[in-house]
Design goal:
globular; single chain; 14 helices; binds FE3-S4 cluster
C-alpha cells in the first residue's frame, strides 16, 4: 500500500502515540482489503457511544485518548448514546449509568467531536454530497449515505471511524470504488408499501436473502426519504447490506446493468409473514418510535395523530438533538407531551438500558428495532404500522 512521506512519518510516531496507533489500524485494514492508498474523507460518524455497548473499558479508552490531546481533523458526529444527554433524569435512567455516559460524551467533546448522538447525521447537520468519501459506522446511516445520497463509505467499526476522524483519511477499498458498487441481485417487489413499517418488513425479508450483497429493487414507487431510511436500516440489520439501488429513485440506479442477475421476488404474503414473525409479544409496556432517528416530518405525523388524545402507555419518539430543537419550536413536542409521550434525543430503544428500566414488551414500527430488541434488550416485540400502534395505545 502506497503511503506518502507524511503518512510514513505518522507511522514512525513523529506525530504522537495516538495518531501512530490510529494510523496503524487504518494501514492494517488497507492491507487486509487490498487498498492501494489512503484517501481523504470529509466526515466521520463514530459508533460505540452508549455506555451499554462499550462499558468501563470504553470509557477508559476514550478518556485516555482525550487526555493525550487526541483531536479530530474532520466533522465527526456520534451514534446514539445510552440516554438523552439533557433529559435523562425525566426518563428514569439509572444514575450510575448516566454518570458513565456523561464521561463518554465529555471525552468525545474534548476530542472535538460534535456531541450530537444520532444515527441520522444527514438530518442533523452532517450531509455529504453525491460521491463524497466519508467514514461512517452506524449501519443504517451507512446504508442511507451510500444508497440514497450516493456518498461513499465502507461499513466502518467504531475504532476505524474514530481513526478516520483523527487522521482525516481512510484506506481506498470496498465501496469507495466504482467497481464494488454494482448491483448483485435483482429484487422484484409486488406488494403495497404505504407505511415505513412496510419498508421495514421488506428490508428484513430482502436482507435475509441477499446477505451482504447489493440489491437492485424494481416495483418500489415513490418512496420518500423516510421510507428509504426504514428500508435500508432493516436490510442492514438482517443482512449487513451497506448499499442498495432502487429503479428510478436512488442516484446510481441508472448506472446499473441488471442483465443476468439472480432474481428474487417479494410479495404481500412475505410482508405479512414478516410482521407476524417479528411480533413476539402481545401487549406493549411502552411504544418507542424513531428507528432510525425520526425526521421532523415523522414527528409531525405522530404529533398530528396524538392531538387531543391521551396515551395509555408510555411513548418515546427518538430523534437527534437538532431535530428535537426544531420540533420544540414547532410546538410538536408540546402536543406529544400533552398526550403523555416524550420526544427523546441522543438515544434509541436499542442502546438505552430499557431492560433495566422495567420494560419487557416494546411496540415499534421499525423492522430494524423489531429485529434487534429481543437480542439486545431482552424485549418481546409488537411490530406494526404506525396507525395500528397509535390506535392500540390511545
Ligand atoms: Fe438508530 Fe438505534 Fe435504530 S441507532 S437505526 S435508532 S437501533
Amino acid at each position: 500500500m502506497y503511503l506518502t512521506n507524511a503518512e510514513e512519518r505518522i507511522l514512525s510516531g513523529e506525530n504522537g502515540e495516538v495518531l501512530e496507533r490510529m494510523f496503524r489500524l487504518l494501514v492494517r485494514l488497507g492491507e487486509i482489503y487490498g487498498a492501494d492508498r489512503m484517501i481523504p474523507v470529509s466526515s466521520s460518524q463514530v459508533a460505540g457511544v452508549s455506555y451499554k455497548s462499550i462499558g468501563d473499558p470504553g470509557v477508559e479508552f476514550l478518556e485516555d485518548y482525550a487526555g493525550k490531546g487526541a483531536s479530530v481533523k474532520i466533522v465527526t458526529f456520534l451514534n446514539p448514546a445510552g440516554m438523552d444527554i439533557e433529559d435523562w433524569q425525566k426518563l428514569n435512567v439509572p444514575a450510575d449509568f448516566a454518570q458513565k455516559q456523561l464521561r463518554i460524551m465529555d471525552a468525545f467533546k474534548r476530542m472535538g467531536v460534535v456531541v450530537s448522538a444520532t444515527c441520522t447525521p444527514y438530518l442533523a447537520g452532517n450531509l455529504p454530497r453525491f460521491r463524497e468519501h466519508i467514514a461512517w459506522s452506524e449501519s443504517s446511516a451507512i446504508s442511507f449515505s451510500n444508497s440514497v445520497i450516493g456518498a461513499r463509505t465502507n461499513r466502518e467499526g467504531g475504532p476505524s471511524a474514530l481513526a478516520a476522524a483523527l487522521c482525516g483519511v481512510t484506506p481506498n477499498y470496498g465501496l469507495h470504488l466504482d467497481e464494488n458498487r454494482k448491483a448483485q441481485v435483482a429484487v422484484q417487489v409486488d406488494a403495497k408499501l404505504e407505511d415505513s413499517a412496510d419498508y421495514g418488513a421488506l428490508g428484513y425479508v430482502v436482507g435475509k436473502q441477499v446477505k451482504n450483497r447489493i440489491p437492485y429493487f424494481r416495483g418500489i414507487k415513490g418512496a420518500d426519504s423516510d421510507q428509504l431510511k426504514a428500508l435500508g436500516a432493516s436490510m442492514a440489520a438482517s443482512g449487513a447490506v451497506a448499499l442498495y439501488h432502487v429503479e428510478d429513485i436512488t442516484p446510481e440506479a441508472h448506472l446499473m446493468d441488471t442483465k443476468g442477475l439472480e432474481m428474487l421476488s417479494v410479495n404481500e404474503k412475505d410482508l405479512d409473514e414478516t410482521f407476524s414473525k417479528l411480533s413476539t409479544g402481545k401487549e406493549a409496556d411502552i411504544v418507542i418510535l424513531g428507528c432510525p432517528h425520526s425526521s421532523l416530518k415523522e414527528i409531525m405525523a405522530v404529533a398530528r395523530k396524538l392531538e387531543g388524545k391521551k396515551l395509555k402507555k408510555p411513548l418515546w419518539i427518538c430523534t437527534s438533538r437538532m431535530v428535537k430543537e426544531a420540533a420544540n419550536r414547532m410546538g410538536f413536542t408540546e402536543v406529544i407531551e400533552s398526550a403523555g409521550g416524550k420526544l427523546v434525543a441522543d438515544t434509541c430503544m436499542v442502546v438505552a438500558p430499557i431492560e433495566d428500566m422495567g420494560y419487557k414488551t416494546t411496540a415499534v414500527n421499525s423492522g430494524k428495532a423489531a429485529n434487534y430488541l429481543p437480542g439486545f434488550c431482552k424485549q418481546s416485540v409488537v411490530f406494526a404500522r404506525l396507525d395500528t400502534i397509535i390506535e392500540r395505545v390511545t
